[in-house]
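Supplementary notes for students who missed Thursday's class. We covered one full example, reproduced here. Read the sequence, then the structure, then the short commentary at the end.
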Amino acid sequence: MSISGWCLLLLLCVYLEVYSTYVLSTKKIVWTWETGHLLGDQQTKKLEGHDIYGNAHYPGGRQASAVWNDNNGTVWMFGGFGFDANRHMSFGKANYLNDLWKYDLEEGTWSLLLDPVSETIDKADRPEPRQSAIACGYKNIYFMIHGGFGEDSRMFNDTWLYEINRHVWTPLICNLTISVCISDKVHHPASRAEAVAWCTDEILYMHGGVNQSFHVLNDFWTFSLIEMAWRELPVPKSNELHPAPRNGAVTWTLKTAEGAHELYMFGDNIMNGVHINAGLLTPPFLHRNGGYVAQLWKFAFPQCTWTLLNGIPNYVISQRMVSKCVGRYGVLNVPSQDNRPGCRKLAAGWTDDEGNLWLFGGLGTATKIPYMYTYAHLLSDLWVYNMTTAMWVWMGGSNTEDVANHLNVSESYPGARYDFATWTDNETMYIFGGFGLDSDKQPTLLGDMWSFHMKFYQTWISPKKKDIHPLFVFLIALFVLFTIFGLFGTSLYLKKSLNAPRHPPKHTDKVEVRYTKLKSQVKFKP
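Structure (token representation):
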């Protein structure tokens, strides 16, 4: 191959290294079953000793618990809809719960802190049993919950703080009729459940939810974890792009280089719901496929503006729109602008160190075209979204609906589910419980725990942060070397050519020149 050919090849390598934004991972997602029963509807365990996993206690099957990771080695979990230690007393029927648990990330064990079943705690000194509340916390000082849905179809708008050192609940007292906090006379959110929430170091952000009439909401609130006060943000103007009223979206939080928060949410329901009485294996409220969306939104500070990053704009509830709710999976582990998760709500989301958005499960649509007046299906697919290329990648899980738990020597994975607890620790994702299919393929309230490590499956590597491959360094050095030698050789040749003497050509023979007579006279202008 000529020198020019080698140079072109090296230039191609440089182009691919510099302008190829990402390197694709071919590793298959491997889930780890941590602990918990693979069959659903299990009651809370309270042992005199410890089980084989070191647990003296273990939560019963449940969904819609309020969870907060304090980033100090502890995960806090309150209530939900499920089974306590007295499952036999309720004839196998799930109940609204108000027990308080903590999970030690280092030891991998659960502890039951407050058990209303066995402890004589005055009702005024603890939150009422509920599901679908939101949660957050401040450092290692307190854990908080807000809102939720409880017995007798009651929606809550109260805010409770659990003081970690004192082990007591303290209410932020509010008047439910006038929606004003008596303690400091600040404005307070109305009753709701399934609100969209983002928990940061100092502020809890809350958007939407469903109210007492099961109508979706569109207000936006902040709760200062330092001042312990609510504040409502202005409603977007009619001519400004903003999400429709909704509930049940999955959320992520990222920080800009300047330290400002960026809030992301995907999926949710935008149609008013139909109340279904709570009972065995029946969620207290469901939504039909007609209200599910697959939009990815960003809310940015300090501008306080919404941006639609991905999905169908101006979504109007209709069968035509619902038919577009199916997921576009493409090829496993292969990015594409055409890829997109199906419409869903009550899924789980995590962020990794590269700022990628991970998404798992939920209640919605995979590949079957739904009918707008039927209820959605359980999902178990795993996705990742990269902000730089704005592309979704199907990373694992099933692209079909209603897949059951599977535990095998060769392969294990969690079954389809929604409304489950979730948290991360050192880029390891955890999921616990939810409503889904157990190992017997039965729709139940689950109590199993699964995990996988995101670091092993980074689909994308950012060009600004990625390591330079040694082969790339060698090729660049070779290219520079060839270029130097080429320029040096060219300069020598030109120097020799320019300095060479000029001589007229020598001919040993005489050259006879013959002319041909023109056929016509041609006149040339001067």
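Commentary. The CA atoms of residues 299 and 306 lie 5 Å apart. Residues 15-23, 175-185, 276-285, 459-467 have pLDDT under 50 and may be disordered. If anything here is unclear, bring it to office hours.
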